[in-house]
Amino acid sequence: MPVPPTPPGPRPRIAIAGIHIESSTFTPYRSSFEDFEVRRGQDVLGRYPFLAPGSDLREAADWHGVLHAGALPGGVVAAEAYAAWKTEILDGLAVLVEQAPLDGLYFDIHGAMSVEGMDDAEGDLITAIRGVIGEEPLVTTGMDLHGNMSDALFAGVDLLTCYRHAPHIDTWETRERAVRHLLERLRLVTPGTPAPKPSKALIRLPILLPGEMTSTRVEPARALYARIADLENRAGVTDMAYLIGFAWADQPRCSAAIGAYGDDARAVEHAVLELATAVWQARHEFEFVAPTGTFTACLDTAIASGERPFWISDSGDNPGAGGADDVTVCLGELARRPEVLRAEVSVLVASIVDPETVRIAHETGVGGIVDVRVGGTIDTRAPGPVPLTVRVEATDDSPATGPAARLRVLDADRSTGLEVIVTARRSQFATSAMFERLGLSMTGADIVVVKMGYLEPDQYDAAAD
Ligand SMILES: [Zn+2]
């Protein structure tokens, strides 16, 4: 629904702040200052396509960016980084509040941030923010569906919603919806006077499933999320959130949760109860998005298969869920596998983070041959770095990966069927454009090994099995 035209007179004052990361407590990787892109002040607005100058949403309010820190999924956030940004956010909001009361806050979070020594980082942050801005401003958020809804977060947020697709093809659409609903509600009152709070409801379900079992490409998640459109169209219901929760953190708040808000308390409660009941009834139907097995078993299947390319995902080391991205179980086994060494089957490992090997490859140059030890330095648990003799096939330096290199593994000076991409930063080769930068195609190898929870759209299209 479009926001009604701006009436004459003052516009609502809305602040934007948040810290966005999904962080696993099961990886040795620790996320800190250098992992985040931090925007401050009015630069925060540049993050949102729907707040571009001249857009209806931009013109509908006075926007005040405070601080937004965003990172790729990673390990637990360093306590000092969180503390520093929290202080900046609180100080910035205090300055704004001193000038004039805020009408709203867009709390831009993922919802699965783990911070050293804390069990509920987002709950802590919103509670502290409420301490500064007060209870009256409307707070909206559009979370990742892998976020968690703690009691403290639910208490602090008035308008809650989350993505409805995994893979997350609706990230920006969700954020825009969260902001649009905030503006619609603020339009009901003169800026500076409190807008009526919606009724909201939440049911937390004792179900905790990984992303690999809850892709909306497959049932039952597809059908469960499809019900939201109908439920939120009911009179008195504005928006709904079905949070899968985050399985890779060991915290009490991690669970599935169904939330909704709107102007009719009974309708809101009913919608939440209806969806929560459906999720509960389907709880044993969730299955992995693909067959699972040990790497050896998967590789046996892939080699024997006639389907090319055959994709295998090392989902236990998925950087998209906070994994280290340098576990070498697959690479080590591939480098010993006779069919691969004899080049009877071609295999591409895309990718492993290893800044040191990337540096050596760039120094060696394309065509050069060099001995390297790949991976196993962030996650130092077995099997550790894999010693390889490689020929540098291509190098690249892209915003997505930092410096990167494509390496052909050699065996006694002969080319094997194995290539591995190494990157300076933890990366996911999710798009065909990323493969092309290194002279590759997504369908070029017989077997492609990635570290994903589920395949992203380009990958899904490329994989024959
Ligand atoms: Zn997610």
From TrEMBL:
Residues covered by the Microcystin LR degradation protein MlrC C-terminal domain: 312-465
Ranges where the Microcystin LR degradation protein MlrC N-terminal domain occurs: 13-302
InterPro entries, sorted: MlrC (IPR009197), MlrC_C (IPR010799), MlrC_N (IPR015995)
Protein name: M81 family metallopeptidase
